[in-house]
Amino acid sequence: MNSKINLYEITDGNFYGINDLVKADTGGCVDCSSCCYGVGELVILTPYDVYEMSSYLELSFDELLIDKIKLQHENKITLPHLNVISDSDRCSFLSESGRCQIHAHRPSICRLFPLGRVYEDDDFKFFLQTNSCVKENLTSIKVENWIGISNYNENKKFLLTWHKLLKALNFRVKFIRDEQELKAINTDLLDTFFKISHASSAQKHDDFYSEFYAILPEAKKRLGIL
Question: What is the pTM assigned to this prediction?
Answer without folding.
Answer: 0.90
